[in-house]
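Researcher: For the record, we're logging two predictions in this thread. I'll number them. Prediction 1 follows.
Model: Prediction 1, sequence and structure:
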Amino acid sequence: MKVLITGINGMLGSAIFKALSKDEEVEIYGVGRRVQTHKNLNHYFRGDLTNSNFIEKISSGINFDWIIHCAAIVDLKYCEDNPHIARSTHVTSTELLSRNNPKSKFIYISTDSIFDGRKGNYSEKDEPSPLNIYAKTKLQGERVIRESHLSYYILRLNIIGQNSSRGNSLFEWAYKSLDEGRDIDGYDNVIFNPLHVDQVSSILLKMIEVEPPFGIYNLGSLLPISKFEFIKRVAEENNLDTKLISSKTVDFSSSNISRPLNTSLNIEKLKSLSLGIDLTLNKHLKKTNSLMNTINIGNKTIGDNQPLYFIADIGANHDGDLNRAYKLIELAKESGADAAKFQNFKANKIVSKAGFERLGGQLSHQQKWKKSVYETYEDASLSDDWTQLLKEKCDEVGIDYFTSAYDFDSVDHADKFVDVYKIGSGDITWHKIIEYTAKKGKPVMMATGASDFEEVKKAMEVLEEYTDQIVLMQCNTNYTIDDDKYQYVNLNVLKAYKKHFPDVVLGLSDHTFGHATVLGSIALGARVFEKHFTDDNDREGPDHKFAMNPKTWKEMVINSNQLYSALGDGEKRVESNEEKSKIVQRRSLRVTKDLKKGQVIQKSDLEALRPLPTDGIDPYKIGDILGTTLSKDIKAGDHLTEGHITDDKR
């Protein structure tokens, strides 16, 4: 069976792909606008669904059994500002797919927003009345399918889930806001009955399997819920502070964009199919590891709740000697590095000889170079013949190999040898190299030294267009050996990165002495660390003086992992190694004299003293104990237990 999924990189498309890929008899074809994010997807078309030539190309010679049309623009404001693009995406693409694949069975993903929200509990027979451009164009897409296709399912729904590409779903917004301790509003008069993308995928697969009567189906959870209650349940399921959530009644009539209030769907038709799918939300409201920010480098996963990742930037410290490069790879591995990073460039493609000569002198860290800037870059450049040899050496010792490639040819040359690329700080405004590198479809690390936040945002816009496998690294681009460099590292930028780019893995590219900055960055969320590496800080060369050596690198790795382990998961509890300490350190209520069964306990009968046996009573519960009656005798000094007292108070 051949299945084409549009919008395969999106939240729902990804979930459907994941579910379908478990069936070896299904051949999946995906369509998206970005570089594909699914490693085991063998057929991927990257292009514009509104382009007739593109649709004709992907449809030619392939008889799709099913087309699942998930692609959509769900940003309401964008649709209002760009109605022609909304129509092209939701209507034109549907027309083209339908026209070029007339024999395919068609599944069109629609929305509950096609209703005006005045009454709720909408059935498939209720007349739609969309209020905004997004909903109007989605409804027009429905009509295209109804008029042009005989074998179709139109699925009206509202989905929740974890969007790996953007991180802007309702669930993620609520979770991240509460996790960061921010106050948020939940609308108590906006009602819906959403399904998790995994539930929708299960329903869809069942419908493909059993093929119930074609037509329109509402998909929704069993019970409607307000946005306020939904957010509250997300908080409760994830042990987050519900006090941060305020109940608010909203009036969309004064909004620039009209929105429905109650889009709850009647799902009796769906239930009549008896597909055996759980339609309750409970188990889908808890954060899963897929929401954690992670990327894959080769066979390693890095990011949240994963081991820290240390990159030994050998850079130019090989000093032009291949055997010395081999030695540094071996030492980096022995010292605890996860990767050895090199730099691929040609001097004439990274620096202008005339440009530096006309500066009238060498600036910053270059002042201490004994050769000219151009000559230093010539000396530091790697022969292309080294690349395979360095990769083989890294494989031999068991360490990842990758590089910063500083021109298009170097990117192409390195591609078959690396699982990840690094964009250096100096290229953050060269968007062409960022785009060219990202199009290779591999994870990208990007350092952000000597740039402001607007420049970072512009670079990220380019990067995110082609990949969501990103490590964003705070960096202070200063290669001097000044003692005051710490005041410029500005680790708190990591907080801003976490807020504005919630899906990336955070990192630190650092040029200070020691590893204090690394420890601080771990506490702020960084999980990837790059520092220069040498075997001798007294050697001549541009990067030896401030680099880490095997001794200091080992210390950094040990201390970093200790700190990382100490951070924990943030849930306050009695830890397993505190159980015995709890007994000997805490006080329990004990009697001051012998007491007989039937006596009423008075304040003078009790005192709080250590230890607290497992059946003891904490002192703060004394108010519950005073005035109760003893159910049996107790000796002076003994701790009081629940078994000593009755429930009756006098």
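Researcher: Logged. Prediction 2.
Model: Prediction 2, sequence and structure:
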Amino acid sequence: MLAFQKIGFEIYIATAIPLRLVSYVKQWLAKEQIPYTKFFRSHRNCSKSDIEAEALVDDAPEEVQSFLRSGRQGFLYSQPWNSAAKISGAILVKNIDDVLKHYGVRKDEGGAYRDIRWLGRN
């Protein structure tokens, strides 16, 4: 997590899953090595476009589309149930590294994340 903070990123996790499944989501995040600053459990009737953030990564096409309509960046996390979705302006990603590459951040050989924007290459 500290590596992300050093390069100016905060990662918020927002999910509408039932409360009884929150621990499983957190286990999955740890297994996938997805660090986060804050974890939110939202209500099903709330839109994630209400979250104050620059970008959204989600597997729900309607959430990504709503976020894009608010003028911010939307990333569609590729899953079997959304493979047919076509959302103008959305960037399809398979993992957190795909998202970070969009912002000029790469993982080095040692596994540390580095901001390479100042190097002038992606």
